[in-house]
Each structure stands twice: as C-alpha cells, then as structure tokens.
Write a structure and sequence with these properties.
The protein is α+β, with helices and mostly antiparallel strands. About 55% of the residues lie in helices and about 20% in strands. The chain is built from nine helices and twelve strands.
C-alpha cells in the first residue's frame, strides 16, 4: 500500500512539474520567436531606410536605435520591377551566395503573395522580404537573409528543452526523496483504520457469541419462536460481515502474493457446477465458453475466491429467467475472464462506484442478501495478482472482466 501511494504521489507530482515546465518553456520560446520576428522586420526597415539605392532621399530616412554599421553586418539584396512587370534593377552588392537568376526567381514568387512582409525558407536559408511600391509604379522587393537570427532562436529552444529536462529530473528526484515523508500521515491513517477494523471485529465477536449462546439456551428452554430465529439470523449476518471486513483488511496488508501457474479453465470447471444448480432453481441459465487449458499467473485460492464472488454476484442480481455468460480467453499477454448477466435496470447506472464498499446501485439491489463488499474484495484479489477488474454494460448485460497475467 505504501509503495502504491508513493508511486501515485510521485506520478502526480511529476505530472504537475511537467505541465509547469512545458508551459514556461512554451511561453518563453513563443515570446522569443515573436521578438525575433519583430527584430528582423525592424532590421529590414532599417536596411531599407539607410540604403542609398533603396532610399535615395536623405530627408525621408527614418531614425532607428541601431548603429549605421548594422546594414553592413547583414546580407540582403533587392530586385526592382517596372509598373508593367519588367525587370528594372538588381542589387546584389550586399550578398554573395545569391545569383541574379535566383534573385529574380525569389522576387517573382514573393510578388504573388498578398502581404507586404513575410518570411520563406529555401535550402535551409531563411529570408525576410518587404514589398515597396514607388510613386511611379515601380515595385522593389527587398530580401534579408535572417538565417542567423532564426538559428539563434532555435538554439535557445534547443537549450531550453535540455535545461527543462534537467530540471524535470531534479524535481522528480526531490519529489521521490520527500514522497515517503509526504504520504506518511496518510499511511498512518490507513493503518489505523485497518487496525480499528481488525480490533473492532475481534471485539464484536465476543458479544455476538454470547448473544448466540443465550438465544440457543432460550430456544432449549422455551422452544424456537420468530424472535429467537430473527435474532440468530442477524447474529449470523453480522458474523459473516465482520469476517469479510477482516478479510479485506488483511488482503490490503498482504500486498504481495507468491504467484504460480494456475489452470484457470480447470478452476472454472470446478466452481461453475455448484452455481448452476442454484441458477436452475431460480430459472436462470448459465452458459460457459472458455478456452481449454488457460494458464494464468496467480494464486489458486485467490482465483477460486474471485470466481465464487463474481458468480455469486451474477446469480444473485441476474434478472428473472435471465442469462449468465462465462467466457475466458487469451488476449495478447493477458487472459480475460468475463462473467456477464442480464440486468435490464443497468442503463444509466454509475458503474464506477460498484466496487466501493457497501455501495448499492439502486434500491432494488438492497432487497438482495449481501453486504456490498463482495466486488471490493474481488477488485482487491485482482490487484494482489497484478491484474485488473473492469465493469461494463451493453445490450442489457452487465459484465465483470478480470484481466489476469498469462502464464
């Protein structure tokens, strides 16, 4: 139980840390890429404003907070077309890796875009461009090689992911280190509850034994009557209930069982006949469809108890003249044991609570004999054997599926 709680605590803590780290890294990098884009556009505007060819009128040059040498530190080129679309001028003075043919090709392709500013990537090179419309109708396309800026942004993203992963590992180690201390109050509370159930069970056995003995003595002296029979019936009911509670408490304490190879098919053949007679008396039909020689990893006594609980539940709550289906087969690395029964009132029922102790799905189930802890015991048995118990409802049939390890 302690190990399970620690793993659950560590998992939730790790999930919370992952969410925070991913959110922080995402926000920082989104902001970084937005600033990178803004800087590139500003530099492009600066280049245009300070280039004598692109901006020949000094009085129209804008004032930027950049040094004038910035234009010479970056690579850019421009292509000018006349109003009719004829090539008018190509300026490749500030770039060496682009030919005139490539420059014209880039310009013609970018001119078809609707926006005046944008980016594109070609052969692992990033370009930002701006479209300038002159008063005489000429169109100038200015291209800025901004590869180094994007590479810097991607390097920042790469390193932030690495540092985030390192931080995640550190946080997980810290959470794991303090997890035992964090869950200690919960573990103590659970242990106290288990101890209370065990002690209360043993304490209640004595007065129940006295009540039973006194009632039997009254029956010997005065004969049986409806009151003594009712008292004995309730004594037996309480005795079984106490025994079941103590059993569940012990099952939770014994989290590890020695698992061996168990023939599930053989156990089903042994257990089912005793329930068939009960079902026939209630006009209910049990059908079995199990693969032969199904071997599972488990404890034979626990699997037998699991079968008894699920079959008893199926027979007890099956509709009158209903059907009980028992199937067992292999699926991947597991063996699935499914016990289904007719249950027309099962539509819209909250099945997630069926395995809660003392839970009854509807008032009609309270009319049946039982304590509401059988399915809780079945779930605990499955978990002890490293399996799972699922509940589903389809087509008027409620199904309990035990998934066990294949031997």
């Amino acid at each position: 139980m302690t190990k399970k709680l620690r793993l659950h605590f560590i998992s939730l803590g790790t999930l919370a840390v992952v969410i925070v780290i991913v959110a922080v890294i995402s926000m920082i990098n989104v902001r970084n890429f937005m600033e990178t884009r803004s800087d590139i556009y500003n530099i492009l505007d600066f280049i245009i404003a300070n280039d004598d060819i692109l901006q020949p009128n000094p009085e129209k040059k804008r004032d930027f907070n950049y040094p004038e040498e910035l234009a010479y530190q970056n690579r850019y080129f421009s292509v000018t077309f006349s109003e009719k679309g004829d090539l008018k001028q190509i300026n490749l003075d500030h770039i060496a890796t682009v030919s005139e043919e490539d420059a014209v090709s880039y310009a013609k392709k970018s001119m078809t875009d609707s926006g005046s500013k944008d980016f594109f990537i070609l052969q692992q090179t990033y370009y930002a461009y701006e479209k300038l419309q002159a008063e005489n109708g000429d169109v100038t396309m200015v291209f800025f090689d901004c590869t180094s800026y994007f590479e810097s942004a991607y390097r920042f993203l790469h390193f932030s992911i690495i540092y985030g992963f390192i931080c995640l590992i550190m946080f997980v180690l810290i959470i794991a280190f303090f997890s035992k201390r964090a869950i200690e109050p919960v573990v103590k509370n659970i242990d106290k509850q288990k101890q209370f159930i065990t002690n209360a069970g043993h304490e209640l056995k004595t007065p129940l034994a006295i009540i039973s003995a006194n009632t039997e003595l009254l029956e010997m002296l005065n004969g049986k009557n409806e009151w003594t029979e009712s008292t004995m019936k309730q004594v037996k009911r309480l005795t079984v209930l106490i025994q079941n509670l103590i059993t569940i408490s012990r099952m939770n304490e014994q989290s590890d069982l020695t698992l061996t190879d168990v023939n599930l098919s053989s156990l089903i053949d042994d257990v089912v006949p005793s329930f068939k007679l009960i079902a026939m008396q209630q006009f209910k039909d049990i059908k079995t469809d199990c693969a032969p020689e199904l071997m599972v990893k488990g404890d034979e006594a626990s699997i037998q108890e699991l079968l008894n609980i699920l079959l008893d539940n199926a027979v007890k709550y099956c509709d009158d003249e209903g059907i009980i289906d028992i199937t067992a087969n292999t699926k991947g690395r597991s063996v699935r044991l499914m016990i289904s029964n007719s249950y027309l009132k099962g539509e819209g029922v909250d099945y997630s609570r069926f395995m809660d102790r003392f839970y009854r799905a509807d008032p009609s189930r309270n009319e049946k004999k039982g304590y509401g802890i059988g399915l809780s015991m079945a779930e605990a048995l499955c978990e002890q054997m490293r399996g799972k118990l699922h509940i589903s409802y389809r087509g008027g049939m409620i199904s309990f599926t035990a998934v066990l390890q294949k031997a």
